[in-house]
Design goal:
Elements: E1 13-15, E2 19-20, H1 31-44, E3 51-55, E4 62-66, H2 68-78, E5 83-88, H3 93-106, H4 112-125, H5 130-136, H6 141-149, H7 155-162, H8 168-174, H9 179-192, H10 196-206, E6 208-209, H11 227-233, E7 242-243, H12 246-262, E8 270-274, E9 283-284, H13 295-301, E10 307-312, E11 321-326, H14 329-346, H15 382-402, H16 404-416, H17 425-436, H18 446-454, H19 461-471, H20 478-488, H21 492-495, H22 500-503, H23 508-518, H24 520-524, H25 527-532, H26 536-543, H27 568-576, H28 586-592
Parallel strand pairs: 2-4, 3-5, 8-10
Antiparallel strand pairs: 1-5, 3-4, 6-7, 9-11, 10-11
Helix pairs in contact: 1-2, 3-4, 4-5, 4-6, 5-6, 15-19, 15-20, 17-19, 20-28
Amino acid sequence: MDTSANSVPTNPTLPLSRIVQGKNPRTYFDPVEMADLRAGLRAAGHVIQPIIVRPIPGTDLYEIVAGERRWRAAKDVFGDDYDMPVVIEALNDEEAEAIAVIENHYRAPMSHAEEAHAAKRQLLRHKGDKEEAAASLGWKPELMERRLALLTCTPAVLEALTQRQIQLGHAELLAGVPPDKQDAVLTGVLAHKVPVGVLKEQLGRFARQLAAAIFDTAQCSACPHNSARQAGLFDESLGEGYCQHPTHYDELTLQAVEAKAQGLRDQYPLVQIVKATDGGAYLPVAADGELGVGAAQYAACQGCASFGCAVSALPGSYGDVTPSQCFDAACHTLKVAAWRKAQRESGQEAPAKSGKTPAKRKSTGAVNPAASNAQPSNQTPQRVKDYRVAQWRKWAARELMAQPERNRRVMIALTRSGHTGDVRTIEFGAAAKRIVGPWAVERFDFAAILSEAEAIDAQHLEQLMLAVTASAAFGVGLRDLDALLNYLEVDEGRHFKWNAEFLGLFTLSELESLAGEVGLKAKMGMAFKLARAKKKGDFIKSLLAVPGFAYEGTVPAVMQYPRRAVSAASIVQESDDLPVASGESAEEEALAA
């Protein structure tokens, strides 16, 4: 048939050689179905149903819109010169693809994956309007949603669906699996020819129940890995209430556990998240019972750096909190043994009979003080150690300013021992400004400062010299600070202040221990329990406002420095005898204990 690119043929046929493939949403042509089609054409002797084509501007060629299967079969059976019956339409790309999808859907249907890709393209052309996109394809909106939902499958899964290697049910189930796992699961399905029902059972074993989640599952409502999404769209799904992304579920769970642990850090000195891989040991600690340590020691334990709670990150108990735990097994063993010994010596523990486990009487937490020489003890938290050393330095500096004679003797000792480098310029400068007023200019040039010093009023020289030595209190090492405090006979009661800054260093558990030690707990009586139930800030306010309590002069043990003999010989001897801990100098061990 003779025609040009710009004229519409009167005879609805075109040579196959002038017809070319178009943008067919179908990418897979089933070999069996194509063989059947070719056999039908041979039997009929011609193509009965025309294909739809559109002209290609500027050429004498036509592009297939719908009917590529018939075009392929006719070329194989009749050759390129065969006059193909056609319907010629002037269509844009959007209209052409819509017709192609509709034609394919109702003849030999495309694969669901091919329809999913076509649906996505139509959705983009309609600027995200799903109803319009569905209408353009002759689909209901529900079908559009189902096809689009398949696009959460990886390209390999969609290709397997197109090639008829897996069923739609396989793809629907895999759509909820994390993309980085889909291909591995697909490989297993193909290798072992896993039926849809078996795949569903296997995936169900790894899914997590959202009802058991300890995190807010509101964020899961729109997640593609929420089984409810597949349940509402697909014939095959795990049903509602499952997370099909175990790794993400576990991440959210751990975040929730960590958030819970963070909320407990004001209550306990140590909050330990317990994971299956940890293998760490922690033991319950209490006043009574099998692992009891006695009431006095338990009160001290509550202020120990190794006392706290365990927050579970173990399956089946996510977020469970186990309070009153000791994370120093060696110390725990010693405390329990000391308490049992005290009970035996006081007659509160019955002797063993006939090799049987001794029967224990109910303990009241009290014991005859003479029965044991062990004193309650604990490990001071590092933050408190740092605070008290800073305070000790301030107290020593004040005493050096208040004791002129000892001040001079300290300077002599510093000079003779080669410790003049312990004099601190910044601290001296701050003291000097309080004594003589601000310097004209901050300098580090000796000649310039010398002329400046010459201009200082003589009445200030004595105080400035005291300040020089006092500044060394901020530079000496911990062992020398120990000697300095003892030499100056610093009275902690004259310097220590009860305030929110100090109490804010402690957790609620540590505050309870501290209050018991200094008598605040007893002074408050029943009011203490009510105050203890408050938030930390309010609890501290209650502790600082107890009527009749002698705050002035009462110093908690944690702020008291270790007393040493004040003679030079004994100080040197005792300092030499101080133990050196691993990773900590002897001077640090002396004051940090």
